[in-house]
Amino acid sequence: MNNKNDNWRLKWFSAPLMKLFRKVTPTMSRTEQEALEAGSVWWDGELFSGKPQWNKLLSLPVPRLSKEEKAFLEGPVNTLCNMLDDWQITQEDKDLPQEVWQYIKDNGFFSMIIPKHYGGKEFSAYAHSQVVMKISTRSISTAVTVMVPNSLGPGKLLLEYGTEEQKNYYLPRLAQGLEIPCFALTSPHAGSDAGAIPDSGIVCKQKFEGKANVLGIRLNWDKRYITLGPVATLLGLAFKLYDPDHLMGEDEELGITLALIPTSTKGVEIGNRHFPLNMVFMNGPNYGKDVFIPMDWVIGGINQTGQGWRMLMECLSDGRAISLPALSTGAGKLASLSVGAYSRVRQQFKMPIGKFEGVEEALARIGGLTYVMDASRSLTLAALDNGEKPSVISAVVKYHLTESMRKVVNDAMDVLGGSGICLGPKNIMGRAYQAIPISITVEGANILTRSMIIFGQGAIRSHPFIYKELESLSEHDENEALKQFDRALFGHMSFFIKNTTRCFFNGVTNALFIRAPSRANKKVRRYYKQATRMSAAFALVTDISLMILGGSLKRREKISARLGDILSHLYLLSAVLKHYQDQGEYESDLPFVEWACQYNLQRIQTAFNGFLHNFPNRPIALLLRWVIFPWGRLYAPPNDQLGHKIATLLINPSEMRNRLTEGVFIPENGEEAVSQLEHAFRLAVDAAPFEKKIRAFQKAFKPEYAEYNVMLEAALKEGVIDRVEKSVLQQANEARTKVIAVDDFTFEFNRK
What is the CA radius of gyration of the chain? Predict the structure, then answer.
């Protein structure tokens, strides 16, 4: 385009639209701006593009453990797990034993993210996740204790933003366990709206440690729900900083600031502890009244005052993308292992309950969703270990993996029945059930994560053009701003037209002409094609929503939530396809892969249907439905045959079962519940052929046959079974009797 035409377009087209864009674009607060700028755009950007580059995803290195990381998992982690008695921890002591606390400190469990030159482990995100996941299958309270110092806390913040003096002093102490850290963000009047914290600091000068006129901050705060708070020696604190006397400059309101404060500091008060649903990890409130700290206690020093929200947003991804997905996947793996085994061992009507179709349904969801969780966890960790900081994706995995944990554990409890609801040392899933509301609450409540964060942040941050358009509005040079806006606007228009055409063509042809990546296994290529088709549809409805609803979309949380669901399930579907390739494309894995792909496609379709059914502009909604689904809805949920295959794999020994449940801790002590269950599971499988032999014999019932061993002796005498077979059947029955037993207690139990 020549300059004359270019100037005409700028003057008569782009300039008026830019003026209108400024008028309809809602004003963003500083905290919203910093949240948008946090982290990096990664695969979420591809999903917003309408044409994801699958080879980019498939070429991402598979996460692996180093020799040192593997040795830590097989050594100290297993030792720690063997030291834990979760019933004693949660029901009797309400705390970890002192020897466990000391072992955690002495063996570097608090220093997994700290570099080696500070005395830490310097583990990968993948290793960090594997450690937390394995411990969680033994004791969730212990896993939370370990994960917090390695997630959002003083260690992470120091690494990213601390001064050299702060790093050199605190990081070695944290690595050696000489300091126990916590981070205080949540206030009684500011939970998910953390930007509204009322806690304040006033810049002032006063005497400190014998020195007069020390420039510092006088703090007042009231915090709660602070994990490790009751035992912390080092408190990370978020507060709003004010400078009314202009001791630092012209601005009076400096913004959210983060500081490190020893809990022994005068005026710091550590309150009592909370008791979160029988999870006895240390958690509680703390307070500060007129606490003075010098300015060099601010994380990063005086230059980082007012930068706290940006610092938090950039570091939140660890808690969301590593720790909570590890806990959730651990629960799924434990359910797949233990409930699968229980379904084989437990018999009703003279057959394993895992062979009843109603139980198969639950087992299919347990196995299928566990596969989705493990795939999503692994993919996100691979991104983190390759330098990405995917803030939108971290919100996706936090929400959907904790919600999948809820579904899996609920199904597990249904199958276990009385064994699930009677707490005691034998109960395997009870504490995981109690932990569900905790996991969906921390690091951002799930309701708000789904309805406000995933799409609300993703639409602006990950869209190929919207963020560029918004950035142009903040350009001070008006001519340059107009040129930037013009480029972004016309790029956006071209993008919209191409996506509309692509979406309709893909719908009419049912993705027939979409090219799957050449590296993809032929048996799953159709899922790549359908994922690409849904990505184009998602890009289209995103643009339509922003054009028609504009700034009001921010307030239409149900619409935003459904769009977030589409984005999320596209990511989960992508993770499943990547995981299948990374694990070696085994034939036995296909039922899980197909179940997971069909499940996610059906959830995408459901979200689209909800969006289109509730979109306020009805003519546009009808047109979009015709463009996206010209032949109607096509994606069905996974069928019964797939569910049967998954259930069968869970109730029989197999390499697939081993891969799915890899990372679950199985105690060395054969009297422990999980160990007994696995032992009974193997015996039940061994005894199955011999049980067929005596089934007909059992029908000729005699009263004395109610005693199993008497019946076996009679079968032996009549030559139905031999002595070896009788021994196997006796052992299997004895093991079955042990694992279906539940704990009981005296009337005086737990009375004060």
Answer: 29
Q: What is the pTM of this model?
A: 0.94
At 371-409, the pLDDT tens digits run 999 999 999 999 999 988 888 999 999 999 999 999 999
- Residue 77 CA to residue 62 CA, distance in Å, equals 23
Q: How far apart are CA 403 and CA 401, in angstroms?
A: 5
Burial class of residue 744 in the structure, from the number of CB atoms within 10 Å of its CB (0-12 exposed, 13-18 middle, 19+ buried): exposed
Which stretches of the chain score pLDDT less than 70?
Answer: 1-6, 23-38, 192, 194, 316-318, 469, 700-701, 704-705, 750-752
Which of 69, 314, 443, 469 is catalytic? The answer is 443
- DSSP type of residue 217: E
Please write the tens of the pLDDT for every residue from 6-55: 677 777 777 777 777 776 666 555 656 666 666 788 999 999 999 999 99
The yes-or-no answer on residue 443 being catalytic is yes
How far apart CA 545 and CA 566 sit, in angstroms, is 14
Kindly compute the dihedral angle of the four CA atoms of residues 288, 293, 296, 302, in this order, to the nearest 10 degrees: 80
**Under 8 Å between Cβ of 136 and 326:** yes
* C-alpha–C-alpha distance, residues 40 and 390, integer Å: 5
State how far the Cα of 699 lies from the Cα of 309, in Å rounded to an integer.
Answer: 71
What structural domains does the chain harbor?
Answer: 12-56+455-642 (no CATH), 67-175 (1.10.540.10), 182-298 (2.40.110.10), 313-448 (1.20.140.10), 673-740 (no CATH)
Q: Using the 8-state DSSP alphabet, how is residue 154 labeled?
A: H
